[in-house]
Amino acid sequence: MKKRYKSTILSCLIWGSGQFFFCKQRLKGLLFFAMQAVLVSIELNTGYWINYFAGQIANFKIRLYGGFFTRGIWGLITLGEVPGAKGDHSARLMIGGLIALLVLFIFLAVYVGNILDAYKCGKAMENALATANTKQSRSKQIKKKYPYMILFPVAVLLLFITAMPILFSVLVAFTNYDSNHIPPNTLLDWIGFQNFARVFNSPIWTKTFFLVLRWTIVWTICATFTSYFAGLLQALILHSPHVKHKALFRSIYILPWAIPGMISLMVFKNVLNEQFGPLNQFLLDIGLISTRIPFLTDSVLAKISILAVNLWISWPMFFVMLTGVLSNQDPTLYEAARIDGAGKSQVLLKIKLPLLMHATAPLIVMNLSFNFTAFGTIYFLTGGQPTEPSYQFAAGSTDILISWIYKLTIQQRMYSMASVMSILLFIFIAAVSYWNFKRTTSFKEV
Amino acid sequence: MKKKLEWFFIHLELIVVALLVLVPIAWIIISSFNRGNSLASSTFVPEYLTVDNYIRLFRETNYGLWFFNTLQVAVVNTIVSVFIIMITAWIMSRFQFKGKKASLMFMLLISMFPSFLSMTAIYILFFTFGLMNKPLALVFIYSAGAVPYNVWLVKGYLDGISSEIDEAAYIDGCSYFQSFLKITLPLSKPIITYCAVSQFMVPWMDYILPNILLTGDRNKTLAVGLFSMISGKENSNFTMFAAGAVLIAVPITILFILFQKFLVQGIAAGANKG
What we know:
The complex is a heterodimer.
Chain A: H1 3-13, H2 17-22, H3 26-46, H4 49-53, H5 62-65, H6 68-78, H7 90-126, H8 135-172, H9 194-201, H10 203-239, H11 246-253, H12 255-258, H13 261-271, H14 278-285, H15 299-328, H16 331-339, H17 344-372, H18 375-381, H19 401-410, H20 415-439, H21 441-444
Chain B: H1 2-32, H2 52-60, H3 63-94, H4 100-111, H5 119-128, H6 138-159, H7 164-171, H8 176-187, H9 189-205, H10 208-213, H11 222-230, H12 238-258, H13 260-273
Helix pairs in contact in B: 1-12, 2-12, 3-6, 3-9, 4-6, 6-9, 6-13, 7-8, 9-13, 11-12
């Protein structure tokens, strides 16, 4: 039999043995073997397999005697078997199972790498190329391995802190995790697509969902474009040659952007307070109104107030970016147009604006996706209030999807439905981002 | 005449907008020096000014602790995040390896998922590993959350720097990591500044995660502590809140204005990268 097959088969059974015995790569072989040893010892140390094989356990159950991996996978599949029993906490079993799967996944990658490597080095031995283990080929090998060595810890961090929780919340959407099923007293069950079906089939869910979605979309579009055009207008006005103290105005206008947004939102929540807020008091004092205006407690006014506050906070960003674009523009372009007989307004509408829009289009898209999930703006100003009878499940008339999801989780403990909403929201964002991203060049350069 | 009128209206508009910007800011600053506790009692033209609210802020609440907690998280988060971002982006930009495209796409995908949607899992994870009530543990989430988007951003920046210098350094006997430290990092100061400043600001602004992960009053971050002062119905702590808000907004605003140039560049680059 050829060396490459021998080496491969041996490495399939005992990791690194092909490299060790056939390829004279002792250290590498030992490292692969150490990985296998770690994998097996984790399972053996956390479980009772040895006792089982010694015949000490008559009635073997993975639930009680399984190791880290087998018990993890058992937990993920069954979500626990005995309600209220210690260790049968469904949500934790799910997380434990996911972690076990991810760790297994990493080991699997090492295993596959081990087999491929065994094949390769066996082949190299046949061709007697391994003797040419010169300095150059070694440095080349380092260059190949280097990225993996550095990225490994980063990948672990991302997998466990970012990807694992996302996977968990996706999985929760397929369970009955809600206020009636709270582990550890009750077990969770897999219920397939029932939750998704509820959003579209059950009238109260459907109605609330589409009401919230409608305002989310209206909010996203209005919030972005009001800020954009306010910034544009102000940039154009400040850019006019009549203005002398440009720097002064500029440094005033930038303030709302520089102040932490959260602080501004909390302040405006008080400014707009119906009973005690200074704005109502001021309007009363100058005699403009006779009764106090419910800025944040009337469902229509609240929406307008939110948009107005958002305008105050976010127009300076567009203002600064557009000022930058304006001052970088080539003035000869406009002169040429003027010589050709274009009026002032024609230059503005036909040349200046389209150029500006083109330069800042990506910024608009970015802001759209930001506003789509602008939790803070809603939460700090109104908390989604006021409530209305047509809205169910704690949703208020100013709630956008993300703030509603927060309420479903924290107040209503409808974890599974919150997950369904999260997935729908994610699909929305992902679609828009993907479309936006595909147009850009950085995608093609990867 | 027409010119003068135009001049007048332009300046009128500019001044009105400036007032709209300044009045709320002035109001909150004045409120913080107001006597009395409540929102209703804080007037625009107070008869007395006092620093009582600032003193009470430190005597009666854990403001000092909150500030220290947040500062601690901010500093550690900045260092950890910037290091991870830079080294990952450097690898992604300078090396060719199998699975590179897949990992970049993977990062892009998870960067689209708002991190707080997975709060239930993070809660359980923190609970299981005993990380609840430890402000510094937030760094795990912040840094892991910052990696995907910023790696894309920095990778784009590094792609724009010629790699010939690196090659020359390798020939001169420089190791990979040395070239990263001595060549790549100094050349990417603007983008490092952007990442550092934006990561430094995250803990001051974030509310949700600290709100569910840090329960004791002494462990809170500033955002959570401040909001707790005004989330009650009576707004009885309003002037104290105002003092707290001013005290935090001033340094952050100054920081922002100092690094404005880098932030603008970073945002422009981010928008163009998607």
